[in-house]
Amino acid sequence: MTELRFEGRVAIVTGAGGGLGRSHALMLASRGARVLVNDLGGALDGSGSSASAAQRVVEEITALGGIAVANHDSVATAVGGEAIVDAAIDAFGRVDVLINNAGILRDKAFHKMDASFIDAVVDVHLKGALFVSRPAFALMRAQGYGRIVNTSSASGLFGNFGQANYGAAKAGLAGLTRVLAIEGAGHGIKVNAIAPIALTRMTEGILGELASKVAPETVSPLVVYLANEECSVNGSVYSVAGGRIARIFVAETYGVVLAENTPEAIHARWTEIDNVDDARLHEPTSLDSETAIIAKALAEAS
Ligand code: NAI
Q1: Is the Cβ–Cβ distance between 180 and 146 less than 8 Å?
Q2: CA pair distance 251, 200, nearest whole angstrom
Q3: In a 10 Å sphere around its CB, with 0-12 CB exposed, 13-18 middle and 19+ buried, how is residue 107 labelled?
Q4: Which atom belonging to ligand 1 lies closest to the Cα atom of 41?
Q5: Pick the catalytic residue: 166, 225, 238, 254?
Q6: CA distance 8 to 24
Q7: Ligand 1: does its nearest atom lie under 6 Å from the Cβ of 167?
Q8: How far is CA 293 from the centre of its chain?
Q9: Is 145 a catalytic residue?
């Protein structure tokens, strides 16, 4: 098997001062990418900042013979996003790969969650990915090549108690992945997402027996594949943990077209509407494809 390499490529990894981002940055650099290691260097809840987290990872990469520079801007503002991409251009002259990985946690049951918890988490995860992707995507579009890997989460795709802010932001990243995949498709750009589970400071003490099997290094090979020129998929989301990888997708049941469109008729046909045990499940690939499915069902029923 030919090794998937990144000679001549430049990668930005946000939140790469520790945890998953550090592992992604090290693996990309070990395969020849020049890496911008971004990290604000704050606490798990997003408070504080420190230049040392990103700098330490740059030193690790350099000691192993790789090429990297540190950047400490926050992903959470448009100015920060521009500055991160500018830093990669200043250091290396181009951007081929963007790994949107930076993240924080402020968990609380929803009825107790105040606005500051919502703003902070949505700003870093969802707006952060938008703010860094926007200038990177423009460069990728102009050069006709790019790879973006977003970091979603099972919390947003499947739900998790106490994470209304985080789950909403992470589900938003899946939506962003779909839209950018469609916008980038004609320009050599592929955009995919991961929903990882890994032992980091974010999950310390909550993974039980799984903890010993899910080091960040077990997630990075998929990220490296999705970031590589050989990546064959676009707009997909993958569950990844401990060497297990599976595709997560949005599908819809075959559905019904109601002759009598009343709440009572809907109630009566609920089992059919919800029926996932049906070989006719649809997996729409865009809003247009969903619209076509609806139009066909309505045409067939009339
Ligand atoms: P982590 O806390 O070790 O890494 C997150 C990094 O992002 C930290 O180094 C932090 O300083 C940095 N960061 C936070 N705010 C930033 C900002 N505004 N600008 C730049 N950098 C910032 O946690 P972990 O687990 O490595 O998380 C990485 C990503 O993976 C996050 O997006 C997280 O939500 C996601 N994730 C992790 C899971 C896990 O099991 N560890 C599960 C699902 C998703």
Answers
A1: no
A2: 31
A3: middle
A4: 11
A5: 166
A6: 18
A7: no
A8: 28
A9: no
| Ligand 1 contacts CB of residue 74 (under 6 A) | yes
Determine if ligand 1 sits within 6 Å of the CB of residue 201: yes
* 100 in Cβ contact with 152 (< 8 Å): no
Q: How far is CA 218 from the centre of its chain?
A: 16
Question: For the segment 71-123, what is each residue's pLDDT rounded down to a tens digit?
Answer: 999 999 999 999 999 999 999 999 999 999 999 999 999 999 999 999 999 99
Model confidence pLDDT, tens digit, residues 169-197 = 999 999 999 999 999 999 999 999 999 99
Nearest CA to ligand 1 atom 32: 103
Cα(241)–Cα(218) distance, integer angstroms: 6
The reply to whether ligand 1 has any atom less than 6 angstroms from the CB of 42 is: yes
Span from the CA of 19 to the centroid of ligand 1 (angstroms)? 7
Rg of the chain on CA atoms, in Å: 21
Q: Return all residues near 167 (Cβ < 8 A) that are at least 6 apart.
A: 153, 155, 156, 159, 160
Angle between helices 19-30 and 220-227 (to 10 degrees): 50
User: What is the best residue among 47, 101, 237 to mutate for testing ligand 1's pocket, by most ligand atoms within 8 Å of CB?
Assistant: 101
With a 6 A CB cut-off, is 239 part of the ligand 1 pocket? no
Residues 6+ apart with CB under 8 A from 85: 12, 95, 132, 135, 136, 139
What's the gap in Å between 32 CA and the centre of ligand 1?
24
- pTM > 0.85: yes
Q: Any residues with CB less than 8 A from the CB of 72 and at least 6 apart, and which? A: 38, 39, 40, 41, 49, 51, 54
